[in-house]
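Training component of the fellowship. As part of building independent skills, the fellow (R.M.) carried out the full modelling exercise for a liganded target. The chosen ligand was 2-phosphoglycolic acid. The inputs are recorded below so that the supervisory panel can assess the work.
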Amino acid sequence: MHVISCLDYAEMSRKTARIIAALVQLKPHCVLGLATGSTPVGTYKELIRYHLEEDLDFSNVTTVNLDEYYGLGPEHEQSYRCFMQRNLFDHINIPPENTHVPDGLTRDVARTCAEYDNLVASLGGTDIQLVGIGDNGHIAFNEPNTVFVANTHLVDLDEDTIKANARFFASEGDVPRQAITMGMRSIFSAKLILLLASGPNKASAIARMIKGPIDPQLPASILQLHPNVVVIAVKEALALV
Ligand code: PGA
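Fellow's submitted model of the complex:
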């Protein structure tokens, strides 16, 4: 794993966006794997700026997102589809049909999950996959577990995750208890994985991810097996590395 230490959130966002913008410019038909949460918001702001001020063209880009809350539809303001519209898609020229987020309202979970993995495979995998990391070491919604799960699947959210994400909802009781998440196979289809982290609360998970044993109790540790991972993190998040 290659690690880039940044002074602050703005630098992390600029560096990440610069890499993604370079890909979009050099490979207009690229496939971007995208993430939600607080961490990538600054990166998306920079990408919007590249589009508005420097004519970065997203018209041939395809995106696949990592996950979606189970039970939330695209109209729900805390759904990840809504997050992506608000923080990126509504502000760039990507065709709506090129953007993919798992269907949180599906009545046929097994089929939706299988189709999502087939979609990623049919696209040839992602060129860049952006991921955050949970305080508990999750990537996407692959929570600490006894095994690494390969396929896209329905997952029960960890208590830590529900607590961490309660800040976006009126109360902790409103946080969905389940989500549909990409599994490790589709995440690993990426030619390059950019893992972003900001904040001292991520320091323990980052240190265990980089130095610890590969252990499904720390799902991000499996990234040690991917040939091309770049960690772009604010220095507080690297304090224990
Ligand atoms: P955050 O979430 O960006 O809101 O910290 C990251 C994650 O849980 O994967």
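The panel noted the following from the submitted structure. The mean pLDDT is 98. The radius of gyration is 17 Å.
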